[in-house]
Amino acid sequence: MRKAARSGVGCPNGECEQHGRHDAGNVVLHGFSKVKGGRRRRYRCTSCSKTFGATTGTPYKRLQYSKSRFDRVAALSVEGVNKSAIARLEGLSWNTVARWLELAAALARRFNAKHLRGHELIELQLDEMNTFLQSRKQQTWVFASIDVWSRVWPATLVGARTSRNTGRFVRSIADTSHGGGTPLITTDGFKFYAPTIRHVFGVGCVLAQVIKKIKRNRVVRVGTKLIVGTEWRLSDALRESEDSTKLNTAFIERLNLTIRQGCAYLRRRSPCHARRKQTLEDHLELFRTVYNFVRPHSALRFGKVTRTPAMQAGLAQKRFNFRDIFTARYAAARFAIVRFRTVAYHEEPERVRCAA
To answer: Distance (Å, rounded) from C-alpha 212 to C-alpha 222?
Structure first.
């Protein structure tokens, strides 16, 4: 009789009736397979009779190097190291680094969609950063947001500063919450924020703008303007806030700096501009996962414990690592594989998506 596999292993076959279930007891051990680094465990589903490996559905599948090396490449990327430097440090080709980061971003996007939901929005701050694509030939913007109380980075968007993109961005923030509460929202003077936030969050929120007057690249005056809500509701929101005593955008500005430091594409005076919008979106998705679930936040230190934003918001019980994210059991379903043609190191690889 076959020995049952450990709990948490589910069948990755999308046509299996037990697909997506990790406690059905239909997965049993099925020996080992030989690989370059030794051997790896294999499993068999008793429902569909399909066999699969322990790395099926993860970026580690058919990996010719160690898992720790893959994790190290992802870690270097979110520390602001560009792909060419990573390739030199790790002794890999540029195309290999690009392909690994593409796979890591695909799993990070799925991880965020699954886990970054259901928290309470208390005090939101929204802002945009300017950047370039295609070696400064095309200007674009990165929309970012932060829930000040938990320091969670709930959503981001790359695109032009239009009414449509602003609506998509604000709705994506609202989708991550559990739908309750009336948050205090602070933005800059961008004209599309007011009608969009009023439409998405309704009159239950408190919306205020911090308007800065800049002269010769210096802030000479800062003013505030209440858009939605009343003065007494604003005073109550500021009094109940654990971080803000007056209206400000200091927390989202600090997040912007963190994003620029962790993304080689967004560094100031950098030659490493993303050549495609999708490349920048992928990196930001990976970095958002690391920021929320992997990296402890220095402002969330309680005694000897320093929490991640996800722990503070109640979305996680522990600090995750790259292995937890890339081998999440729900993500064992098939996902798009990215193939690259061989190109020079300074070119952007041509991608062709196909079914796994």
So the answer is: 5
Residue at 168 is within a domain: no
**What's the number of domains the chain is made of?**
1
In a domain, 263, yes or no: no
Strands 305-306 and 301-302: antiparallel
Domain with 33, as residue range(s), is 1-54
Contact 342, 350 (CB under 8 A): no
Rg, C-alpha atoms of the chain? 23
**pLDDT of 301 strictly over 80:** yes
Q: Report yes or no on 215 lying in a domain.
A: no
Q: Phi/psi at 105 (nearest 5 deg)?
A: -65, -35
**163-181, pLDDT tens digit by residue?**
999 999 999 999 998 876 7
Give 153's DSSP letter.
-
**Angle (nearest 5°) at CA 162 between 161 and 165:** 90
Dig out the tokens for 322 from the structure. 């790259």
Distance CA 3, CA 6 (A): 9
Cα-to-chain-centroid distance, residue 279: 13
Q: Residues 313-324: what's their mean pLDDT? A: 92
Residue 146 burial (C-beta neighbours within 10 Å; 0-12, 13-18, 19+): buried
- Determine which helix (DSSP H) or strand (DSSP E) holds 203, and give its type and residue range: none
For residue 38, tell me if it sits in a domain: yes
